[in-house]
Amino acid sequence: MTVFGVPTQALFGQLLLGLINGSFYAMLSLGLAVIFGLLNVINFAHGAFYMVGAFVAWFLLQHLGISYWWSLILSPAIVGLLGIVIERTMLRHLYKLDHLYGLLLTFGLALIIEGLFRNEFGSSGQPYRIPDQLLGAQNLGFMFLPNYRGWVVAASLTVCLATWFMIEHTKLGAYLRAATENPSLVQAFGINVPRMITLTYGFGVALAAFAGVLAAPIYQVNPNMGSNLIIVVFAVVVIGGMGSIMGSIVTGFLLGVVEGLTKVFYPEASNTVIFVIMIVVLLLKPAGLFGKAQ
Amino acid sequence: MVAAINTPSPAVAPLLQVKDLHAFYGESHILHGVEMTVGTGELVTLLGRNGAGKTTTLKSIMGIVGQRRGQVTFGGTETIAAPSHRIARMGLAFCPEERGIFASLSVEENLMLPPTVKAGGMSVDEIYALFPNLKERRRSQGTKLSGGEQQMLAIGRILRTGARFLLLDEPTEGLAPVIIEQIGNCIRQLKQRGFTILLVEQNFRFAATVSDRFYVMEHGRIVDTLAHAELDRRMADLQAYLGL
Ligand SMILES: Nc1ncnc2c1ncn2[C@@H]1O[C@H](COP(=O)(O)OP(=O)(O)O)[C@@H](O)[C@H]1O
Ligand SMILES: [Mg+2]
Taking 70 as the threshold, does the pLDDT of residue B220 lie above it? Predict the structure, then answer.
């Protein structure tokens, strides 16, 4: 069977790959959006935290025999704590200054963290086994779906939608939305906004680490895995609109799929299609597809 | 001199006591030694021309001005070094001049946003009874309300929290006379319920209908104070102060 001259097997294969990539784009751009919304910081260290998340999972398995499933919780917790320390000791001092300073600080941190890991582990990847429970594949009739890949898409969707629900439909989320608009008034109502900012950064960073753990069995655990990905994720954020929660989720999955389809129909453009879209969106709707114009 | 002003001295220590309060926005020195007291259950109005420093005074009391110095004691506790969320937890609540309704929250979310700081706040039903418009529009986006409704929401949401000391910054600014009357009724009801209120107003005629006492502010200082009973006698002075 073929669609537009392309075998359906290949089409669905690339669609799946696109969904997998989209899962990571969505989780990472969501974290960036949450952090940017409240802190006004463009967190350039996001890719580095994603990489550290994968390495923590690898270390826990390799040296302590701690399973993938525990790592899914432990690694985000550890990396989230690291984020909290960084917010408390460094980022906090930059909020009164221009955005640019936060960006420069986190960019520097990313270079330092990635440099340290390259020094220690070199540039070759460390393998990470797929957990036994997720080995194998399902025959869907039109294609084979590897269990682990299905799990990644489901886990990403769940985490993204849960985050969206928490922000848009709970009391805690109302505090977050309000503090994004007017932090000093929210604090004047009796809410400890500085602590909320710290925890939000920790949460955003933990989300990146969670994505890193999910990625470990798919891509090799490698010091450069974050910097390769984060450039695309920034393009996703620009396309979706900085600071929009649902926007970053939808755009993440959508662009993953667009990229996958481009691989089928015009492979030469598959590495650049997202950037082409970014330029078009910037020209036509500078605030992004889901962003509000200032 | 500020010290020479005949402040009526309450028998008990005042609920709020401000002494030699200075405030700054970056390099600019805005408040130059503000002195004032507000007793429990009193309604005190701070009058003054645009730019005199009234809003800055309220923000300094609330702890949301970049830099402040001096003494602000609330219920006997010094608050000058406290972060604003701690000050709010002592039972002060602030209704800002620009109303501060959140666009990303519904009317009901706006109303429910400020956390309870003390027991005994008004119930949501009581607030809806006070401002029936809010109930009808509770699912709307906060900033889709009319100016008057936004003002009601801004006042209503701080009544839920149990705070007994309210700082209201120009609640009648830009509103139609019927709405001003509704706000006035609300303020009189709050007074009857025993709330202590520090009001900032440019609308002197409105302030005269609700206040026990007045302070006049010029260039970041309190320059005069008068009781409600002195209004008629001092009207000429007031008009000069306010440029009416
Ligand atoms: N955020 C700010 N930055 C710098 N100056 C300010 C700021 N807010 C107010 N001011 C200045 O402080 C003075 C007092 O302002 P304000 O307290 O708002 O006066 P009022 O409420 O009596 O009209 C004014 O001269 C105003 O220009
Ligand atoms: Mg003002």
Answer: yes
Going by alpha carbons, the residue nearest to atom 25 of ligand 1 is B51
DSSP reduced 3-state for A6: strand
Name the pTM for this structure.
Answer: 0.90
Where are the domains positioned within chain B? Answer: 14-100+163-242
Query: What does the pLDDT look like over B59-96, one tens digit per residue?
Result: 999 999 889 999 999 999 999 999 999 999 999 999 99
* CATH number given to B14-100+163-242: 3.40.50.300
Q: Write down the pLDDT at residue A8.
A: 77
Task: Answer whether residue B4 shows pLDDT above 50.
Answer: no
State whether A189 and B112 contact (CB < 8 Å): no
Query: What is the pLDDT averaged over residues A150-174?
Result: 96
Which chain A positions have a beta carbon within 8 Å of B115's beta carbon?
A: 189-191
**Residue A242 confidence (pLDDT) above 90:** no
Q: Best of B21, B22, B24, B25 to mutate for ligand 1, by most ligand atoms within 8 A of CB?
A: B25
Interface subset of A 153-192, CB within 8 angstroms of B: 171, 174-175, 177-178, 180-182, 184-192
